[in-house]
UniProtKB/TrEMBL annotation:
InterPro entries: Beta-barrel_OMP_2, OMP/PagP_B-barrel. Residues 19-196 form the Outer membrane protein beta-barrel domain. Pfam families: OMP_b-brl_2. The keyword Signal applies. Keywords: Signal. SUPFAM superfamilies: OMPA-like. This is PorT family protein. It comes from Chryseobacterium nepalense. Residues 1-19 form the signal peptide.
Length: 220
């Protein structure tokens, strides 16, 4: 009986060790970021800026508690933001328009719960905690004859004081991992934090989609 209990305990411990896996590694990819602006005035004060196509790079750590459930945390850098093009109007003999681009240097800390449909395929839900450590805006006024950069060197203005530092964005995503540890993932993060810091009552949110690739070390 004692031998049976001992063998049973060893088997249970072995199963638990097999189910619990820790993996870590680098990841990088492509991001599409947009800014939504609501100035609380009228329909003219609400607009979505055009997507800004950028990148992200960093690392991840995954802890799988059993065959179906796990948790993941990451640290990523991404220059998020948005851009906008305002169609030109006739000013005398010139046709004048405007282009604006906002760059938000952001350190992202995504934390998520994962459900493994199969060993290699999983879905995830969680939240991105983004720390914005730089914010710049570049505006160029263009015409048929010339482009004029507005304010500052190269038309770039520091707007860090106008932007709040924390951007919280819940997300959903999917991931597929090969047997050798190479994985591909995609997710969409919906910006819910008001990033505007000007006190006018308006709201600015940052949402973004990501598609990337990475490699996981560790596991059994």
């Amino acid at each position: 009986m004692k031998k049976f209990l001992l063998l049973t305990a060893v088997a249970v411990i072995g199963m638990s060790a097999k189910a619990q896996e820790f993996r870590f590694g680098p990841k990088a990819g492509f991001a599409m970021s947009t800014l939504k602006i609501d100035q609380n005035q009228d329909d003219l004060g609400k607009r979505n800026m055009d997507p800004k196509y950028t990148f992200y790079i960093g690392g991840m750590a995954e802890y799988k508690i059993n065959d179906n459930f796990g948790f993941q945390a990451e640290v990523l850098y991404s220059p998020l933001g948005g851009k906008e093009k305002i169609d030109g109007v006739n000013v005398g003999i010139m046709y004048v328009g405007e282009k604006t681009e906002v760059n938000l240097g952001t350190l992202l800390v995504p934390v998520s719960a994962k459900y493994f449909i199969t060993e290699g395929f999983s879905v995830a839900a969680g939240a991105n905690f983004g720390v914005i450590f730089s914010a710049k805006q570049k505006t160029v006024i263009g015409s048929d004859f010339m482009n004029v950069e507005v304010e500052g060197d190269s038309g770039e203005v520091d707007i860090k004081d106008d932007i709040k530092k924390l951007n919280i964005a819940p997300f959903v995503g999917v991931e597929y991992m090969l047997e050798n540890g190479l994985f591909f993932d995609a997710r969409y993060s919906l910006g819910v934090s008001n990033l505007s810091n000007d006190g006018s009552g308006g709201k600015v949110t940052n949402s973004f989609a990501q598609i990337g690739v990475g490699f996981k070390f560790g596991g059994n």
